[in-house]
Amino acid sequence: MRPVPWWTLLSSGCAPVVLIGGSTIAAMTHGPGYSPVRQTISVLAADGPSGYWALTTTLIVLGTCHLATAWGLRAAELAGRLALGAGGVSAMLLALFPAPSSGGSLPHGSVVAVGFSLLALWPILAADRSGRAAPWGLRFAPSLTVTALLVIGAAWFLIELETRGAAGVAERVLTAAQSLWPVVVVVSCLCHSPDGDRST
């Protein structure tokens, strides 16, 4: 029996497509006043109903994708699945707490911080520690490496945000990486042979 159902490939694969496609559409509806280099994705929901609904739909579908993937990723440790699912819920909650067009927002910032933390930690929390031959995406070394890179990415985003630098670029790189790793994990699970070489 495969460690994950086939539909997790669909749910995990749709996440980066929805994130990139939805934020691009929201930026196009926003117009030329928006700078994807310096401004965050959340700003797209601040001005005008078109951008708000485009981004809100994106966040709800993205969160649903993460929830479905977490549900089906039976090969992962429960803590990692819960973190991934909760990260999906955080994405949905952002629709309720859009970023203001100017200044900060404690509710929005809190949800972003929780969501980024959960999606950064889920790889290492999902790693198999039983000693058996786990799928590559759930082995300790790759999982730890990805979590470390996501934490570094989050730090980069915070620095750019505080210095009013290329926060938009940093956020896009980070969120793209967060949405792509579940695909890697699912593919590694689907390709994994339980009777494969345990020495690898």
From TrEMBL:
First and last residue of the signal peptide: none
Organism: Actinacidiphila polyblastidii
Mitochondrion recorded as keyword: no
Family annotation (InterPro entries): DUF998 (IPR009339)
Keywords: Membrane, Transmembrane, Transmembrane helix
Membrane-spanning ranges: 50-71, 78-99, 105-125, 137-159
Short name of one Pfam family: DUF998
Name of protein: DUF998 domain-containing protein
